Amino acid sequence: MLSRANQGTFQRGEVDLSLVAEEAAEIMLPLAEKKGVLVETAGEMAAAVGSQALLQQLGTNLVHNAIVHNLPGRGRVWVRTAVSPEGVELSVENTGEVLTAESVSTLTEPFQRGTERIYGDQAGVGLGLAIVKSIAVAHGGSVALTPRTAGGLCVTVRLPAAPHAALVPH
Ligand SMILES: Nc1ncnc2c1ncn2[C@@H]1O[C@H](COP(=O)(O)OP(=O)(O)O)[C@@H](O)[C@H]1O
Ligand SMILES: [Mg+2]
Which homologous superfamily does the CATH classification assign to the domain defined by 2-115+122-162? Predict the structure, then answer.
């Protein structure tokens, strides 16, 4: 799936990021409950163009990270979608340890992991964000990582918006 993403040879359709967000939260609900993390989703319909499967993988990776790299027992996650003049956005924000801009700058590189000493049962090998970045770039978009002042991270994926149906010439 990833190599198809990198080659750009995937089926394209209109994909509403707000449905991706809802689905990701639902898929990850059992893990969130196990970790005592509260996941909230909000936001407007935000239509991108691309692969439903790849964009769902992107959303699910982000929510997974937001749950596992969080404060155990009292963590919070906010999944939001938005439409701007530049395109559509999916952002996943979570509480957690305080991070520096420098420490988050390499996290989308393959096999880059944070400095957590405890590798929980849900620890990955450091490919989650690399996959997110590959998928975003393959869709003509970008990923931005911003540490939260109070601790934790905000990851924003920006993608070109689907052309408005009414404006597509026939
Ligand atoms: N939502 C997040 N909040 C805090 N840290 C995160 C978050 N997502 C990723 N990270 C940090 O980035 C590293 C890389 O993430 P990822 O590529 O998904 O690898 P993995 O989750 O397998 O460690 C993680 O090890 C973690 O330190
Ligand atoms: Mg991960």
Answer: Histidine kinase-like ATPase, C-terminal domain (3.30.565.10)
CA-nearest residue for atom 4, ligand 1, is 69
Q: Whose CA is nearest to atom 7 of ligand 1?
A: 65
pLDDT along the chain (170 residues), means of 10: 80 96 98 97 97 97 97 95 96 97 91 71 80 95 98 98 71
Query: Tokens standing for 72?
Result: 């155990």
Which helix (DSSP H) or strand (DSSP E) does residue 30 occupy? helix 29-35
Top mutation candidate among 65, 70, 111, 149 for ligand 1, by most atoms within 8 Å of CB: 65
The verdict on pTM exceeding 0.85 is: yes
Q: What share of the chain is helix, strand, coil (3-state, %, to 5)?
A: 35, 25, 40
Q: Quick one: pLDDT at residue 169? A: 59
